[in-house]
Design goal:
The chain has 311 residues and is α/β, with parallel strands linked by helices. It has ten helices and six strands.
Length: 311
């Protein structure tokens, strides 16, 4: 059987599934892959309607809508980080409560609240760092093409949605439905080489499904993943490890990507020889955009070798 790649998208609402799949195909292969690729499209679990086709996705590094950015920037400039953290956590809890899906809470939830706090302070630090005339030698922080309040607003947009969707996955009752979408996308694929590519929260969902199924996967690719963060590992259904059926795992992140606060999986996910941690340059506005990750040579070449070898 020919190889297949299954994509699992990340945080936030997305354009319709067919368009999203084509965008990922083009970034990874340079063309639409037709039936050779599938998108595990879990966005409807959280969002009632997809993004319009022509609307850029700010959580994938695109610019926010022009009419919304000034208000976001004004709010980001006026609101201290601790108030933003409290408001975002309260919104996540309220959403779960409104749906009657409070899930686990208390001490367990505080770990993810700590992650939200760390992300927020780092986001604001990176946004302010763009004003410096001399970039850091250790971590180049190029100035984004926005004034500092606009950069802060874009970073906080990423932080807020990343946290709220992860919160919904672990505590809001959305996790089983998200995993079911991924499991259905894997149905009927036994026999040919399988590649699974996840981005952001999608890496958590894909990982937990593969841990449960033990399915043979020639290559697992995680992009901008929070799986190395201890607060996330504390809430996984099973202790961290390479899923039993995975032959090789490549984990790519940019040092400035807030969702991937910890960039190395090898120390926690055994057997370590199956895991390769890659530091790449993602020059999307928030350094988390999936298109920029998929177009990296270190990401594309191992996937393309599998498809070329089966030709």
């Amino acid at each position: 059987m020919p190889p297949t790649v299954v994509y699992v998208h990340g945080n936030g609402n997305k354009p319709r599934a067919e368009l999203l799949k084509s965008q990922w195909d083009t970034a990874l292969f340079g063309r639409d892959m037709g039936a050779a690729s599938r998108m595990a499209y879990w966005a409807p679990v959280r969002y009632p309607a997809p993004l319009p086709d022509l609307r850029p996705d700010p959580l994938d590094g695109g610019p926010e809508l022009v009419e919304e950015l000034p208000a976001m920037a004004e709010r980001a400039e006026a609101e201290p980080p601790e108030e933003f953290v409290a408001r975002t956590l309260d919104e996540a809890r309220r959403e779960a409560g409104d749906l009657g899906l409070e899930g686990r809470a208390g001490l367990e939830e505080r770990a993810l609240a700590d992650w939200l706090r760390d992300m927020t302070y780092l986001a604001d630090t990176l946004a302010h760092a763009g004003e410096r005339e001399e970039p850091s030698e250790e971590l180049p922080l190029e100035a984004l093409p926005l004034p500092q309040p606009g950069r802060t607003a874009l970073f906080r947009l990423l932080v807020k949605h990343a946290f709220q969707d992860v919160h919904a996955y672990f505590f809001g009752g959305s996790g089983p439905a998200m995993r079911q979408v991924v499991a259905r996308s894997l149905d009927g694929l036994d026999g040919g080489p399988l590649v699974v590519v996840g981005h952001s929260l999608g890496t958590i969902i894909a990982y937990e499904v593969l841990m449960e199924q033990g399915r043979d996967v020639e290559l697992l690719v995680t992009l901008g993943s929070p799986l190395a963060i201890s607060e996330v590992q504390d809430h996984l259904a099973r202790p961290p490890a390479v899923p039993a059926g995975v032959t090789a795992w490549r984990n790519a992140s940019d040092l400035r990507d807030l969702v991937a606060l910890d960039h190395t999986l090898r120390p926690e996910y055994a057997p370590q020889e199956k895991v390769t941690d890659l530091l790449v340059t993602n020059d999307s506005r928030n350094h988390h955009g999936v298109t920029e990750y998929l177009s990296q040579r270190q990401v594309r070449e191992p996937v393309q070798r599998i498809f070329d070898g089966a030709g």
